[in-house]
Design brief:
- This protein is α/β, with parallel strands linked by helices.
- The protein has a single domain, classed as Undecaprenyl pyrophosphate synthetase.
- 41% of the residues lie in helices and 15% in strands.
- It has a 6-stranded parallel beta sheet with strand order 3-4-2-1-5-6, with helices on both faces.
- The termini are far apart.
- Bound molecules: 3-methylbut-3-enyl trihydrogen diphosphate (2 copies) and magnesium ion.
Length: 237
């Protein structure tokens, strides 16, 4: 189920330096199997780890995953608690995985939504992986609207009076990565659900029916192939 099929001749070039994943469909995947939604998140984390590793293998420099939105707190308490405990478990092995993959882990979102212990672990993972060369941005307690407001407020605190696009861009949570070239949403929903609203202005969007826990290397390759067939004009001709 989680095996990544080998295709040693598949690599991306500079045209695809940043890919974003809206990892959707965990709950439905579990319910289809007569399991509680939480089980979908357990398997979803494993899928996340293997897909991120695969993206690095094919040469994608920046990967951003939408793991928990500012709106996801609305979910039943037990589901939120399970997601938080999976996140803590992940934080405990994140450095090892990042070291193995030469990956720099960064968290996008508002950390003040988490308990202090969690925040400390997040900061430690960021600090301890800061020298690696591939970027893994994990969006947790993250939402595009809140991120734009946060960026604007940072710029204002730094003394900006009238904001420019550059003021926002240099203060986004994701400021260390370029704008995403491609955003992939699994789970058959055709929306962004508040993911990287500023950054997605000219991203290519790819939607697939695959539920996130079923996501495989071949699904990534399908999205990448679709990306290379697109004609990115950025408003030009
Ligand atoms: C995405 O899967 C994971 C999170 C939002 C944390 P969902 O939990 O949204 O799964 P579905 O969309 O309900 O199937
Ligand atoms: C988006 O999925 C958030 C994440 C994948 C973390 P949701 O399942 O929360 O989005 P909606 O509710 O279907 O728009
Ligand atoms: Mg969903």
């Amino acid at each position: 189920m989680l095996q990544i099929a080998e295709d040693r001749n598949f690599f991306v070039d500079d045209a695809l330096s940043h890919i974003g994943f809206i990892m959707d469909g965990n709950g439905r995947w579990a319910l289809k199997r007569g399991k509680p939604r939480e089980y979908g998140h357990v398997v979803g984390v494993k899928t996340f780890e293997s897909i991120v590793r695969y993206c690095k293998e094919i040469g994608i420099r920046h990967v951003t995953v939408y793991a928990f939105s500012t709106e996801n707190w609305k979910r039943p308490e037990a589901e939120v608690a399970k997601i938080m405990s999976l996140f803590l478990e992940y934080l405990d092995r994140a450095k090892r995985i990042a070291d193995e993959n030469d990956m720099r882990v960064l968290f996008l979102g508002d950390p003040s939504g988490f308990p202090e212990k969690t925040r400390e672990k997040m900061a430690k993972v960021e600090a301890e992986t800061a020298e690696h060369s591939y970027y893994l941005n994990i969006a947790v307690n993250s939402g595009g609207r809140a991120e734009i407001i946060r960026a604007a407020n940072r710029a204002i605190r730094e003394g900006a009076k009238e904001l420019t696009e550059a003021d926002i861009e240099k203060n986004l949570d994701s400021r260390r990565s370029p704008m995403p070239d491609l955003i992939v949403r699994t789970g058959g929903e055709y929306r962004l659900s508040n993911f990287l609203l500023w950054q997605s202005a000219y991203s290519e969007l790819y939607f697939c029916e695959t539920l996130w826990p079923d996501m495989k290397a071949e699904d990534v390759r399908a999205a990448v192939r679709a990306f290379y067939k697109r004609n990115r004009r950025f408003g030009g001709v």
